[in-house]
Amino acid sequence: MAKRLGRSPSTVSREIARNGGRDCYRAASADAAAYQRGRRPKQARLAQRPALRALVEAKLALCWSPEQIAGWLRRQFPGDTAMQISHEAIYLSLYDPRRRQAIDRSLTQRLRSGRPMRRPKLARRPTGRGIIRGMVSISARPAEVED
Predict the structure, then answer these.
(1) Is residue 146 part of a domain?
(2) Total structural domains within the chain
(3) Is the pTM of this model over 0.85?
(4) Which of the two residues, 93 and 103, has the higher pLDDT score?
(5) Rounded Cα gap, residues 118 and 13, in angstroms
(6) Is residue 112 part of a domain?
(7) How far apart are CA 101 and CA 80, in angstroms?
């Protein structure tokens, strides 16, 4: 069956095991379950958890960085994943237009950069790192190096 579908046998085996096994696999219910598991725009974590949102907004108002907030939450609530969030999720809640309703957008002014929008990597100025100053071409090296 895997060969006819153009898939790896292990892929087909995992699909069958995930959706009821050999005896009760149903394509329609497997399709519905796959749709439910699929990646679609989901509500931001801060929008789902008001207590977490209040803590993050309070710390941002105190000019804490998202990295500091994420670390503090991990230390304050070590076993409670509902009260933890990554720094990147905080940045996304501030900057991503699809998630902006999750957190007060005026808090971007309290970030250290103070930017209302995130700068894309290509728009940043080159830092000069990784460039050797006064570099000599390999073709211009002295002849005694060849010996």
Answers:
(1) no
(2) 2
(3) no
(4) 93
(5) 43
(6) yes
(7) 24
